[in-house]
Amino acid sequence: MREDTAALLTLLAALVFIGVVPAxxxxxxxxxxxxxxxxxxxxxxxxxxxxECHDGGIMGPELWGRDFLDEWEGKNVRSLLExxxxxMPADAPGSLNERDVLDVVAYILQENGQPAGASPLEAxxxxxxxITRGSK
Length: 136
Known about the structure:
The protein is mainly α. The chain has six helices and no strands. The chain has helices at 2-18, 36-49, 51-54, 65-72, 77-87, 98-111.
């Protein structure tokens, strides 16, 4: 039975490798999960509601670049949405409305090299959309 399981796993890995079975979708894949317009709105939300703490050195490094990607690479966008929604702002967790959360997450994704797409980020984003090291 172990040989059958190993053979099946080897076959599945080979099929994923050659593209017969799609690999896990990523935010840095061919289609982004937010629009550039949405990220622009998110930048405005970030400046008005987030930058005081995050750009003031209190919490900043984990939102951008290597620090962000070291923490979030391979995790899904849904987890990031839930983290922002449930913990931000630090002085009033959970007080951001859904649109502001979606827009600011779009901005964070954009600033970390995740590509924009044709559709805005929605609360129903698939759980398997992973954050990857983007092109920025």
